[in-house]
């Protein structure tokens, strides 16, 4: 009897141990898998850095950059005043950099190649002004800066749009968290791994995005060179034409700050504006996509960091001048025309666009003046920006609660050409 009992106890005990061990393993496994799948990317802890902290900084007066530099020709006091007020209305802090008239830029200071490029006076001035802005970033040793031109506009909700942009940028360029190695975009950082057969693997639906490591250097990620937030148009890269550019797209659906597709056209009086056809045809209404820049035009607003400011100053200021400034910036991003590829992120529709005040059309630009003279624009206009800061400026300054949506849902496209 006693012998039996003594034999049976350890056997039960072993069984009990087995059951506990199996439960334990299951529990460990579940606790590793389940939270990783369910916890949203926003707000997770990582090495003391959290996305909440970054989100707070994106909403600060300099939009999560160390400074915002605004290029303004001193004689364009109209634009200086308007930008100053619009920034105040958005609780933003601008630091002005003097623009340069083309006449002031002599042939002697232009880099190699300039003799073959016919830059207009306006384009010469623009080139020098952007070089000066980049120089300021280098001289002041700024970690990051957003450089904007002085005729731009943005939605009154720009800060939450930038929080969204930062999430997209992180998903595209920050490593995945947990034990899964690599990146959410299989073509980043090495686009040689592009698998052309199945393009869906480059689409990341941000409603169900994997968790990525919270950036440590900037709210927008640790590996970007340029964030091209304001442009006249950009393309979704494809493997054939953009061999160095990763294909990932961070897709935000149901973003009601995006105008419906019937409003996303390009307007004939906007010389450099190009169409968003691909966005319109590929995605449903109210979709915004963060992706790698490809063939981007107009340098309305772009962020740089210390490293990229130095490289840009060297590349476009000293080494070679072979086009107008924004096209060279695009070459720098795309790795084309003898320049190396760099990691540039952008967004469609753009978050910052050029604003056209009511009045003489020739006041629109310092760059092209030829055919606009004498034409009057009766209403102020900013393409693709729904609740425009510039258009609603006096309401914002008066504190009027209702603001005007320039592109209401379910309405036919506004005809701004008349
Ligand atoms: C805003 O946040 C950025 C990024 O952390 C920081 O560099 C900058 O100094 C902040 N700006 C202000 C005005 O606090
Ligand atoms: C520039 O800033 C970085 C970090 O922000 C710092 O480590 C470096 O010493 C600074 N360089 C100079 C010359 O001040
Ligand atoms: C977007 O909404 C408008 C107006 O309701 C509609 O005419 C259009 O077909 C929609 N576009 C898409 C891509 O669903
Ligand atoms: C489009 C539009 O109507 N915008 C308005 C924004 O607010 C100002 C000031 O009240 C109006 O003059 C604009 O018409």
TrEMBL record:
The chain crosses the membrane at residues 12-30. It comes from the Eukaryota. One of its GO terms (molecular function) is transferase activity. Keywords: Glycosyltransferase, Membrane, Transferase, Transmembrane, Transmembrane helix. The keyword Disulfide bond does not apply. The keyword Transferase applies. InterPro entries: Collagen_mod_GT25, Glyco_trans_25. Belongs to the glycosyltransferase 25 family. This is Glycosyltransferase family 25 protein.
């Amino acid at each position: 009897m006693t012998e039996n009992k003594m034999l049976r106890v350890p056997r039960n005990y072993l069984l009990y141990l087995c059951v506990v061990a199996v439960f334990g393993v299951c529990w460990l496994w579940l606790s590793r898998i389940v939270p990783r799948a369910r916890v949203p990317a926003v707000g997770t802890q990582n090495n003391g850095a959290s996305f909440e902290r970054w989100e707070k900084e994106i909403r600060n007066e300099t939009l999560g950059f160390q400074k915002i530099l605004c290029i303004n020709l001193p004689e364009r006091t109209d634009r200086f005043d308007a930008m100053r007020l619009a920034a105040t209305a958005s609780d933003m802090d601008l630091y002005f950099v003097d623009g340069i008239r083309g006449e002031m830029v002599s042939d002697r200071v232009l880099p190699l190649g300039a003799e073959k490029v016919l830059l207009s006076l306006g384009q010469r001035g623009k080139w020098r002004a952007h070089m000066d802005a980049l120089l300021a970033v280098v001289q002041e040793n700024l970690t990051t800066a957003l450089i904007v031109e002085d005729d731009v506009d943005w939605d009154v909700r720009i800060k939450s749009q930038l929080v969204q942009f930062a999430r997209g940028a992180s998903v595209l360029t920050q490593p995945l968290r947990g034990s899964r190695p690599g990146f959410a975009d299989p073509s980043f950082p090495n686009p040689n791994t592009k698998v052309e057969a199945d393009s869906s693997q480059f689409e990341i639906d941000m409603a169900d995005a994997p968790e990525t490591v919270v950036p440590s250097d900037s709210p927008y990620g640790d590996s970007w060179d340029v964030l091209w937030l304001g442009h006249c148009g950009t393309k979704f890269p494809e493997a054939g034409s953009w061999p160095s550019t990763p294909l990932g797209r961070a897709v935000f659906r149901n973003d009601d700050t995006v105008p419906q597709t019937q409003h996303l056209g390009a307007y004939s009086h906007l010389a450099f504006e190009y169409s968003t056809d691909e966005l319109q045809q590929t995605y449903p209404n109210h979709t915004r996509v963060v992706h790698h820049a490809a063939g981007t035009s107009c340098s309305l607003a772009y962020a740089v960091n210390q490293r990229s400011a130095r490289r840009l100053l060297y590349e476009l200021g000293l080494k070679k001048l072979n086009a107008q400034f924004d096209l060279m910036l695009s070459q720098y991003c795309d790795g084309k025309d003898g320049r190396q590829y760099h990691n540039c992120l952008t967004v469609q529709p753009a978050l910052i666009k050029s604003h056209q005040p009511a009045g003489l059309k020739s006041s629109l630009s310092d760059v092209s003046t030829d055919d606009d003279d004498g034409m009057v624009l009766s209403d102020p206009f900013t393409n693709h920006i729904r609740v425009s800061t510039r258009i609603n400026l006096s309401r914002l300054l008066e504190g009027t609660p209702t603001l005007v949506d320039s592109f209401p849902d379910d309405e036919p496209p506004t005809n701004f050409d008349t």
